[in-house]
Amino acid sequence: MDTWPVQDAKARFSEFLDACLAEGPQMVTRRGVEAAVLVPVQEWRRLQSAARPSLKELLLSDDARADAIAPPRGHVRRRQVEVLK
User: The whole model's pTM is what?
Assistant: First the structure.
């Protein structure tokens, strides 16, 4: 992955975009620190489809509410403790 300082990416955006499309993702740095990545749209869509839902999305979805999350009350298995004499 090539790295571009933000000022170069801005000044040569067409070249930056062409490099992304031809070579793949391109890293952008600000003051020497990695800040962002430009990726081709096909790669972005692949990443989005492979991503897991966030915790917020899981908690707000109807599928998240299931009886199998916790065992039913009164059916907890306890360890047997041996008393040594």
Answer: 0.59
